[in-house]
Amino acid sequence: MEQLPGLVARRGSITTRAVGWAIGQLRREHATVHGIARQLGTSWKTVWRAVEPELERLAADESRFENVTTLGVDEHIWHHVDPRKRGPKELTGMVDLSRDADGKTRARLLDLVPGRSGKAYASWLAERGEAFRQNVKVAALDPFAGYKTAIDDQLEDATAVLDAFHVVKLGTAAVDEVRRRVQQDTLGHRGRTGDPLYGIQTILRAGAENLTEKQRTRLAAAIEADPAHDEVFVAWQCAQQLRSAYHQKDLAEGRQIAEKVVDTFHTCPIPEIARLGRTLRRWRAAFLAYFTTGRSSNGGTEAVNGIIELHRRLARGFRNRDNYRLRMLLAAGGLTP
């Protein structure tokens, strides 16, 4: 029997053209392997056996790691079963956040490795080689000390940047903690319908510039209901000040506000705000780096996580971590340089 490797791979049952089409459907149309198998009139296993070697070849191509100047990192959960059966639930994902000629970020997933630790991130960086590490100039991250340690150890010339979203989230969480504490101190129970502070919990999470007149009136009425509520209002103002640093059109003005926040919050008599201030002081350099790196953030990494979650839901979950890695690299653009 004559072999035609250009038409069908050795021992294959699907043409190379069909394999290319299947990969395109998985990449661009959010298709599933089962759906493709149904269209081709074959089985899931047949389709995956044909597609997997090509994905492995693309994943092994080191050229896809070239020209990465901005690197993001984040973790996510890839399964929800017993880790003894399927291994660690957490994976650390590395994302290319480099900007194109127009200054736009084209986020693409570079890799997924088991675990959520600085060691997992540092080991991956070490495997990439000296040329890759020297090329990375900005490293965005969430406030997780393990990742920061890996950056300090492996990316000595890169500037670590604390993600703006997570910084604002820390401020909002501090306000919510103050609200719950004052609620307990004044009424002796958790928030209930009709309680002044419980009624404004969503307002306290919003930006001041986004509040309507009706919401402002509700906020003022809740704060004036008890002198103890002033503590909540002060905490909210602190969170708004932190948030405003990122909303300044002039980065220099934003940095001035951020520096004031770092220098003053830790002295606040409200314990939750003081703790927030101490956290920002520990992360001072990475916090302020946002204003000197052209508003670098980990937003692209979160967008990639959204793509990963979409494909995980479409597949109704995964049992094999290697297959999961290949599918997510394909879906999130990680198999192209």
TrEMBL record:
Domain Transposase IS204/IS1001/IS1096/IS1165 helix-turn-helix per the UniProt entry, residue ranges: 2-51
Pfam family, one: DDE_Tnp_ISL3
Transmembrane portions of the chain: none
Domain (Transposase IS204/IS1001/IS1096/IS1165 DDE) ranges: 71-328
Protein name stated in the entry: Transposase
